[in-house]
Design brief:
This protein starts with 6 loop residues before the first strand and ends in a 15-residue tail after the last strand. The protein is mainly beta. It contains 3 helices and 11 strands, in the order E-E-H-E-E-H-E-E-E-E-E-H-E-E. The protein has 2 domains: 87 residues, Pseudouridine synthase, CATH 3.30.2350; 115 residues, Pseudouridine synthase (2-Layer Sandwich). Helix content is 14%, strand content 35%. The longest helix is centred in the first third of the chain and has 13 residues.
Length: 234
């Protein structure tokens, strides 16, 4: 079994961990490693629990995406955090390296997404009048926080403030405005063949503790690995 994911915080109510790229959020038919199974095994071993430990999955990250995830250790806390997610008081920010440069330092993308369950791809509609009735409205803000090159091709580092958590939202929306994420196999149509993982990271998560109601903020630093490290501050 793979190593236990990095634990950022744990108490009697919450478990916050970092999902590595390539690890599923929860198990599927492939039998590949997943966060829920790995963390349940960690709890069983740490606390010598008989049988299976309870752990509530509250949100997901796409398999190729790494980043911060929060899990509930009791059903009561699962309900309370799920309510925060519904009320959009749980805040998540992402980093992405995308192809191209931007004329403006900040921007917003508002559109409608329709997921095709057969292809597992999302179609983007930028005008409500053209969107099918079952398309879901979504939005995000982005800020350009760095510029660089990968294999000689101009790229930009973005910080993304996600307002709605639709499936494949960031990947599809950025691609739809001509800035696909480097390494994205589903939505990327970049000018070179980057062979690494998708350069998308959920780096910031904040929520109210389900019992103490204290505002909690979790953040992971910019990776020191290529090609992220070219954006590191000197």
């Amino acid at each position: 079994m793979p190593d236990t994911p990095q634990i950022l915080f744990e108490d009697n109510h919450l478990l916050v961990a970092v999902k590595p790229a390539g690890v599923l959020s929860q198990s599927d038919m492939t039998g590949a490693p997943d966060m829920l199974t790995l963390l349940k095994a960690y709890l069983v071993e740490k606390y010598k629990k008989p049988g299976e430990a309870y752990l509530g999955l509250l949100h997901r990250l796409d398999r190729p995406v790494c980043g911060v995830m929060v899990f509930a250790k009791t059903s009561k806390c699962a309900g309370r955090i799920s309510e925060q997610i519904r009320n959009r008081t749980v805040k998540k920010k992402y980093r992405a390296i995308v192809y191209g440069t931007f004329d403006e330092e900040k921007g917003e993308i508002r559109s409608f997404l329709l997921k095709n369950s057969k292809t597992n791809l999302v179609e983007v509609f930028h005008e409500n009048a053209k969107a099918p009735k079952d398309a879901k409205e979504c939005s995000l803000d982005y800020e350009v926080i760095g510029q660089g090159r990968i294999a000689g091709v101009p790229v930009s580092l973005l910080s993304i403030d996600l307002h709605t958590g639709r499936s494949h939202q960031i990947r599809a929306q950025l691609s739809s405005i001509g800035h696909p994420i480097v390494g994205d196999r589903k939505y990327g149509k970049g000018p070179n063949r980057f062979s690494g993982d998708i350069l998308l990271q959920s780096y910031h998560l904040e929520l109210d503790h389900p019992v103490s109601h204290e505002r909690m903020v979790f953040e992971i630093p910019l990776s020191e690995e290529e090609p992220w490290n070219q954006f590191a501050k000197e």
